[in-house]
């Protein structure tokens, strides 16, 4: 990489070994010989809750600090199977479904610090599954096969009580999701088209509204943070599942991905600018990807010979948590840093900045020297960002980078004419 005339930023790879991945580093949070699944962030970002098949031989609810540490079992050691944990908006409670002594799935909650499990329902003869808290924490929505013989959308007070049916038509209604304002529930429904479509209904019940109606299968609706859009995966005309979105008020859907791989289970970033999902890519394994919510270039966040699933954004958007079947042979909880793009008009950039990188073959050290041709001002210099986009070092001298750790870095040369810089967040 010597004698590079540059008017844009470029990659610098400082290697302690012969090769490094081009993806952000994955960090395992668990590593034992048990299966872990369904990680969910607490609203403060400090904890992850998940279910785990543990030493009891049953699936229990666990939590772990998102920075890493010792796993803490939340549910007591009993003869029940627990799954699909979800934090309450205030992080004080965790709701989940549980196979009770009746052999049915019921909706339970427990204090996030542990204690006695509390059943939110006291009678019934059908499975209740996939509970979700309302944004105000007052209600739990879920799906249940009722007297119609189909899965319907129900809700119950988060304090427990009488369940309320929100749908009742002769079709399966599944995967309910609250809108951010709490006024609507989105879900999948197989309707008169013969295909699974995206629907919504008022959180108080009433007439259902179809948001999609074409001859393809739609799955896994997720609301945008502002409530204006719903994202989902769709088996499209490409003969693969693609990530699409549709206005929550209705209208034409917009395709965000379009290559010959399956894309599934999308989730919005908290600021609404990004969508993370799983993609079965050229590695032959399911990897974690993200794409702008406006579409465009996809970014692979993982790329190895293992399966990755259940990806979820951290509240501060810096991390993605997911489950990964790794070298232990079991599904573990992992996190990796997210990727973002920021575009801005920045700096004066000189038209003739010469950057030279001098790696030392006997050590891991790399020194970057640069010089300027022609006139320049005091703003001229080099700025280095790491793979997550954080500022590492900046200087207006003529030598930089002697103390960089091995890794992948982005160099931006500043000075001269104003240009648009695109860099990793």
Question: Would you kindly provide a written description of the structure presented here, covering whatever features stand out?
Answer:
The protein has 425 residues and is mainly β. The chain has two domains: 4-20 and 343-424, Immunoglobulin-like (Sandwich), CATH 2.60.40; 26-339, TolB, C-terminal domain (Neuraminidase, 6 Propeller). Helix content is 0%, strand content 51%. The protein has strands at 4-6, 10-14, 26-28, 36-41, 47-53, 59-65, 72-73, 81-87, 93-99, 105-111, 118-119, 128-133, 139-145, 151-157, 164-165, 173-178, 184-190, 196-202, 209-210, 218-223, 229-235, 241-247, 254-255, 263-268, 274-280, 286-292, 299-300, 307-313, 319-325, 331-337, 341-349, 353-359, 366-372, 381-386, 391-395, 399-400, 407-414, 417-424. Strands 1-32-33-36 form a four-stranded antiparallel sheet, with no helix packed on it. It is globular, with a radius of gyration of 25 Å. The model is unreliable at 1-23, 340-364, 372-378 and 416-425 (pLDDT under 50).
